[in-house]
Amino acid sequence: MVNEVPVFVVGAGVAGLSTAIRAQEAGFNVTIFAETFPGDKKTIKYTSCWAAANHISVATTNALLHQLERETLSVFLEMLKKDPLIPVMIRPHKEHVQVLGPEGQKQLDHLSNCYSDFRLLEPNELPEGVTKGAMYSTICIDVPRYLPWVLERFLALGGRAFRGTLPSLSALLSEEDRPSLTPFPPTSTNVHPSLNPVAIINCTGIGARSIGDVLDADVYPTRGEVLIIRAPWIKHGLSYYYEDGHLTYAIPRQSGDVILGGSFQVDDWHPISRPEMVKLIKERGIAAYPELLPPDKREARNIADLDVVEECVGLRPTRKGGVRLEVTSLNAHSKSLPIVHNYGHGGAGYQSSWGSAKAAVDLLKSAVNE
Ligand SMILES: Cc1cc2nc3c(=O)[nH]c(=O)nc-3n(C[C@H](O)[C@H](O)[C@H](O)COP(=O)(O)OP(=O)(O)OC[C@H]3O[C@@H](n4cnc5c(N)ncnc54)[C@H](O)[C@@H]3O)c2cc1C
Ligand SMILES: *[C@@H]1O[C@H](CO)[C@@H](O)[C@H](O)[C@H]1NC(C)=O
Ligand SMILES: *[C@@H]1O[C@H](CO)[C@@H](O)[C@H](O)[C@H]1NC(C)=O
């Protein structure tokens, strides 16, 4: 069966790829346009390649995000049931809190509603210096394997993709305004895409600030520095809340790498790591989780013994008011068509990806049927 109705998706991060697949499943003929794709050299403009990533709800006060995260978790669990070998695994995660304040208490209460096997740790299970703790199972996504895997699914469903840097979304609608577009993957024999999509889906992440017919001034980065550590013996994740506000987090990946974080720096665009932050992440990391060090090096607690594979910086696409799942209309080149926005997921783009994709495609279906 050939899908006849063309829809464009702009962006090939976790938001764009997941949305493109849901749109294909709804019967649309989907073409993705993006500057950066999975497998490219990592760049600060492509947040998805830097993510940790696991599912730990951050939707304490955001009902929409909570719903999107909840749906996404069940999609991942369902996928794992069908195929346990996908680049996603279920692991225990521990929360260690030095001093529990009212915000921390709220977050623990919230997590207890999100994860079915959530339990508080007994006092004798807490390490020295930690006054409150919890444990539950959640998913860890092996990002460098997961992104190409999702792209593969899109291509296998007959999806087409083009690489290009768009000055605006409306540029896609006119032969003269279109920037140069090259088929992706380069070996594909994609013909030049139609100029008449029935809708465009906007999944441009932090790029949403620069692509534009109109600028969304509500989008800003929350900068995150993390380290990739080689530590295949690590079997559980950890969030360790220091009394001074620093959060150490560790997320094991299927590959045996562990992400060690981190930082949350509001409106900070600095694209490369800062030595003082790297040092802090290491010091706080081994103090909170000495097992990150090789077994024979744990006694000495020397940061030089961490097996650091890579220093990473990513810009979480944060948005005042939260995720934008909304339809507007675009009038350009004597055409008028709906734009479905799906961007601004901040630090939750993976854990809300499938829920957001479904919501965006529901919006697409009703916009197109009107
Ligand atoms: C350190 C760190 C840890 C994280 N940990 C987690 C976690 O544990 N769990 C979680 O759920 N999330 C996590 N995140 C957040 C997650 O990475 C983001 O929410 C998510 O990757 C955003 O995806 P996106 O598809 O919206 O944007 P992106 O991945 O940035 O993709 C944007 C796409 O749009 C394209 N684009 C933009 N502008 C243009 C243009 N003008 N022309 C053509 N193409 C354009 C880009 O090329 C790219 O393909 C983390 C992020 C960081 C930095
Ligand atoms: C999408 O449309 C193109 C151009 O009309 C067509 O060649 C292709 O087979 C369609 N793809 C799918 C998956 O139906
Ligand atoms: C796509 O979203 C970005 C971010 O808000 C915005 O700048 C751009 O104008 C949007 N495109 C259209 C045509 O609405």
UniProtKB/TrEMBL annotation:
Binding site for D-dopa: Y249, R316, G347
GO molecular function per UniProt: D-amino-acid oxidase activity; FAD binding
Binding site for FAD: T47, S48, T204
Origin: domain of life: Eukaryota
Key words of the record: FAD, Flavoprotein, Oxidoreductase
Keyword Mitochondrion: no
A single cellular component GO annotation: cytoplasm
PROSITE patterns: DAO
Residue ranges constituting the FAD dependent oxidoreductase domain according to the UniProt record: 7-363
GO biological processes: D-amino acid catabolic process
UniProt KW Flavoprotein keyword: yes
InterPro entries: D-amino_acid_oxidase_CS, DAO, FAD-dep_OxRdtase
Cofactors demanded by this protein: FAD
Family named by the database record: Belongs to the DAMOX/DASOX family.
Protein's name in the database: D-amino-acid oxidase
